[in-house]
Amino acid sequence: MMAFLACHGLRAQDTGGSRYLNLVLPDSSLVSYELTNGVDIHFQDSMMFVNDLSFYMEDLVKYYLSSEGSVQVSQFSSGWNWWSTYVEQEGIDGLQMLKDGLGTDGVTIRSQANGFDDYYEGYGWFGDLENLDNESSYRIKTNSPCTIEMSGELADPSLHPITINQGWNWIGLVSPDPMDINEAFVNLEPVQGDVVKHLQGFSEFYPGYGWYGSLSTLMPGMGLMYKSTNGQSLTFTYPSETRQGILKVNRTGEANHWVPDVHAYPDNMTITAVVDLDEDELSGENYELAAFVDGECRGSVGLMYVEPLERYVAFLTVSGGEEEKLQFRLYDKTTGMEFADHEESLSFVANAVFGQLDAPLSIHFRSNTSVNEWHNDSQIPNDENESDAGYVVGDKLYVRSAEKGFVVISDMLGRVVYNQKIGDVCVIDLNLLAPNTLYVIKVNNQTLKFIRR
How many beta carbons lie within 10 A of that of residue 145, not counting itself? Predict the structure, then answer.
């Protein structure tokens, strides 16, 4: 018998005679149905999410019951995915099942300490990764979105203890159910400075209060990294049963003003920061902090109130692959204004941790600083004073060029809003550009930055 419904997520389980189907519905409520003789369905209460969790589509996995046992269905985005499995793995069979599921969509499967496998078109998979296990997480890169199925028995968390060593550990989530982060690590003794992170969120431990950050709910299939500052090795297991109740929403950048592509890079780093504007520390959740590399958004997050500190903190996850200089921007959701930081000097370093709850990093902005003053390349002042690059008179933007060519204007998402041939000077109607927005202007081989006031 196979039970399957089209929804955000579902799981079927056998509880000693009764079969239950747990559904994550489009409105993000999680409900349970009892399957009587595999046909009749009766509703019974389970748990409810606070808000929509659909932004974790790659982690909201589907489940169904088949003759082979339980099946974990995982949806991978194009690019990098941090993944783990809660279906029992034995030897090489699980790895082969994953490879077969990825097929030609797969690029690489990487582990922390047991090697990797790469896919070569026309030849298949090659490498030194020998098997999968439930205790570990894996980084999987694909060249297009795909869906894979892992079949077998559900892994019993009590039979899969996880060892946490000093520093970073790639750990799996041995649970087919969403789990509050505080509940997940109830069998571990975290200390101040410990960090848990995913591809697009993290939390850190604050003694006496628990975990705080942008990652509040662990979703089935998540690949996690745990940083231990304990100084010794510890072993823990996930709870075999999860409590039913309210689960908090994870804070990601998908609904933000600036939207990063978290799947574009294999690594990330974390920043715990407070933000001030004109030397006044900001309070309220109507501000968004973002990190950029050469105009590309690498991470964004709204400020979050932390009750033990009585402060608003930004838990910013920044994606990357190699050391690169970061620039920060601030967005006021109320006014639509953008501000640029030009005091901090911070570079991306994989797995770096900047700031912590008891000593957050301070990021400074000034309201009278134009965004384009923050860049080192050519500038266009947003006033009537001429510059080498161009100038503004009334509602017209004048862009200069030493030779004939093209002028292309795009927003920070890379969308082209203007493309025109240019002679000595190109005159652009500012009404074509949205106010309080930063644009990238390319004139032949020259790159300019301009904010439309």
Answer: 15
Q: What was the pLDDT predicted at 105? A: 97
| The token pair that represents 289 in the structure block | 């902090």
What residues in the chain have per-residue pLDDT under 70? Answer: 1-69, 91, 243-249, 252-254, 342-344, 368-391, 393-394, 400-403, 412-413, 423-424, 444-446, 452-453
- Cα–Cα separations (whole angstroms), residue 95 to 26, 83, 85, 206, 382: 31, 13, 11, 37, 57
Tell me what pLDDT residue 102 has. Answer: 97
For the stretch 124-130, contacts whose Cβ atoms lie closer than 8 Å and that sit 24 or more positions apart, written own/partner, are 125/99, 129/95, 130/92, 130/95
How many whole angstroms separate alpha carbon 261 and alpha carbon 56? 13
Of the candidate CATH numbers 2.60.40, 3.30.980, 1.10.10, 2.60.120, the domain formed by 374-452 belongs to 2.60.40
User: pTM (2 decimals)?
Assistant: 0.71
**Cα dist from 421 to 209, 321, 378, 401, whole Å:** 60, 36, 20, 11
Q: Answer whether 381's CB lies under 8 Å from 392's CB.
A: yes
What class does CATH assign to 267-369? mainly beta
